[in-house]
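[Discussion] Sanity-checking designs against the backbone

I'm trying to build intuition for which residues belong where. Below is a structure token string of 395 positions. I'd appreciate it if someone posts a full sequence so I can compare it with mine line by line.
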């Protein structure tokens, strides 16, 4: 086994996800800490080679990372074997057009982006600082959710509101899930045997958060998420697009700005419509048993998704493939079928047999259709690749 390792860290406001990879891309350990800063905080670690799973009580991010390193140290000689750490950073604003090695200037610039992601960027910085203290000599790399979409043209990213809000406050569409859209673009290039800089796609990342992107010649030229991850598709608990006139109306009904924000971010989407769950699998089961609002939630999800896929196509001169990814995109034949049913006019039709449960990395359209492919995403692997590419030395 190769003894050089890369650690991937995704530090959220009350969570921490990690993955340990060998430099030849083998996943060796993974896990997460949840409910940090509460009495229920737990750290779950899974070692892939031994199938050992452990769950430890923890407190905050610092404590969880300390425990994680102690646990990993029992199996790996991190001081000797770790060659780099890759961090997911949510918002890179307009400063970061690709992943970078973390320096003091990079840290200052990530701080400058805090107003754009007030919950996420401080947590990302906390993770960077804790690991820099533990491994001061090691190169750390920041991989941004936003950077892949920095190639969007002005007409795609500018909101039709007074231009000074962009100039003075950075109000524009940034887009998110860039690491996933980029990963599936690279995978599609391999699957279709077409050079990435000639590849035109619409990619649909459908997890708890969801977004689509238009990819022209391998670069993002439009996406459904905007200034924040609230814009665009119907999601697990987020509304996606709504009429901005709703704000005035809801305020007139006595809701505060905080109430509206909570409603749109945490109580809407699949959960809000169905009234029972934000989980697509549950809704599919419930709908099959006749639960009407679960069925309605699925129908709205697929209709909005199809509308957005159609909208993405105006940025392209031709399309090589429509790509489904994320937990729902990879695993739900029903969502793929219902969505594609709306796309007949654009030349997409599914082959119902190919659109089965096990169609990862396969084409699922019928013979007369444009390509439709299912590609499992792997954001951690993308972070490993970026880290390996940027850190000095050849591995
Ligand atoms: P996250 O955005 O949290 O990473 P995932 O990409 O893991 O989320 O996607 C989670 C979503 O995928 C959930 O709504 C889950 O119900 C859905 N999902 C997973 N498996 C299936 C399935 N077999 N059928 C329908 N939905 C599924």
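Best answer:
Here's mine. Compare freely.
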């Amino acid at each position: 086994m190769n003894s050089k390792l890369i650690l991937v860290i995704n530090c959220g406001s009350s969570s921490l996800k990690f993955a340990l990879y060998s430099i030849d891309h083998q996943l060796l350990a993974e896990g997460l800490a949840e409910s940090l800063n509460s009495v229920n905080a737990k750290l779950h670690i899974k070692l892939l080679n031994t199938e050992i799973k452990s769950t430890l009580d923890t407190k905050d991010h610092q404590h969880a990372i300390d425990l994680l390193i102690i646990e990993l140290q029992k199996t790996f000689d991190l001081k000797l074997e770790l060659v780099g750490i890759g961090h997911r950073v949510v918002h890179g604003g307009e400063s970061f057009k690709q992943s970078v090695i973390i320096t003091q200037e990079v840290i200052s610039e990530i701080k400058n982006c805090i107003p754009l992601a007030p919950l996420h960027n401080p947590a990302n910085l906390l993770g960077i600082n804790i690991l820099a203290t533990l491994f001061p000599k090691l190169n750390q790399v920041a991989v941004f959710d936003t950077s892949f979409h920095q190639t969007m043209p002005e007409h795609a990213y500018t909101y039709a509101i007074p231009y000074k809000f962009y100039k003075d406050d950075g109000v524009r569409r940034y887009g998110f899930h860039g690491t996933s859209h980029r990963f599936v673009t690279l995978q599609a290039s391999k699957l279709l045997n077409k050079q990435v800089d000639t590849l035109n796609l619409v990619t649909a990342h459908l997890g708890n958060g969801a977004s689509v992107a238009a990819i022209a010649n391998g670069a993002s030229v439009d996406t459904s998420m905007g200034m924040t991850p609230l814009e665009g598709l119907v999601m697990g608990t987020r509304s996606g697009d709504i009429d901005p006139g709703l704000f005035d109306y809801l305020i007139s009904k006595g809701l505060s700005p905080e109430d509206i924000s909570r409603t749109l971010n945490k109580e809407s989407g699949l959960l809000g419509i169905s009234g029972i769950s934000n989980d697509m699998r549950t809704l599919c089961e419930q709908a099959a048993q006749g639960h009407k609002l679960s069925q309605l939630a699925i129908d709205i999800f697929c209709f909005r998704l199809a509308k957005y896929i159609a909208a993405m196509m105006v940025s392209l001169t031709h399309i090589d493939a429509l790509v489904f990814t994320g937990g729902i995109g990879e695993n739900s034949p029903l969502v793929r079928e219902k969505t594609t049913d709306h796309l007949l006019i654009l030349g997409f039709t599914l082959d119902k047999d190919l659109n089965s449960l096990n169609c990862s990395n396969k084409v699922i359209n019928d013979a007369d259709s444009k390509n439709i492919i299912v590609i499992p995403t792997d954001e951690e692997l993308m972070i490993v690749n970026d880290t390996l590419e940027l850190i000095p030395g050849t591995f």
